[in-house]
Amino acid sequence: MAPTILVTGVTGGLGASVLATLLNLVPVSTLAASSSNPSAAKVKVKEGVEVRLAQYDDLDSLRLAFEGIEKLFFVSSNTFDSVKRTKQHRNVLQAAKETKVQHVLREGIYAEAFPLFLNWYPSTRDLFLPADGLIAWVSREELGEATARLMLKGGYENQKVLLTGPKAYTMHAIVETINETTNRNVNLHYVSFEEYVARNTENDEGKKPEAFFDAWKSAYEGIANGDGAYVDHLMGELLGRAPTDGLELVKGLLTGDRDYRWHQNYMSQ
Predict the structure, then answer these.
(1) Is 103 helix (H, G, I), strand (E, B) or coil?
(2) For the chain (length 269 residues), average pLDDT per consecutive 10?
(3) CA separation (Å) from 8 to 31, 35, 223?
(4) Of 29, 75, 121, 128, which is the most exposed, with the fewest CB atoms less than 10 Å away?
């Protein structure tokens, strides 16, 4: 049987979680995994899963990777270049359309990445953000499981589906949790977007470029307008249990490691 389901980004946490759930639910012969580095992916995935080359910059490689695929889960590009990232995502969607992929799913906002949203490091004393708003954070592991189950469930054609946590929290609430859980005194300052870019570019421990912070403008505008505040019960229905509360997850991460770090906060990782 040729693969009809493709998961990208399987060398990362979310893609690996989606694939692991699918392996428990469908025959391995129906699954394929793609990576820009197939050799590395083959080490990560279960024997029997077909591994395909897919480079987001290369439309031809995407077309070949998506051949025969009906359902696609794609993990966002990890480039800090917002222009390049947008082009790569358009390539994925174009290739999916050309090869007649029926369902395309993309990841949501998971709590494990909270340091990236805040630009927080264990050494941080002052945080500078251009806005705040509610976000219904989810667990990355649970998001992967729910996404896999949604891919198999089907339905929701031409609909925007949101997999969210059970409650939404502000960035301010996350900072308070950092302080309470790790006995820190991190201060949160709200500044103009221009000042946010300037301060974070100048002092960023992870050495991320100015373009990275520029790219967050639309994200913060959306957060301030309530784009992340919506809570939906679908994730719980797919899991068959209540999703983990986002704030409790952050507490757990910091309790396990008060100097918790997120790899994407660092340019070299």
Answers:
(1) strand
(2) 88 89 94 86 81 92 94 83 82 93 81 96 97 95 93 78 92 98 98 96 93 87 91 94 96 98 84
(3) 11, 6, 27
(4) 29
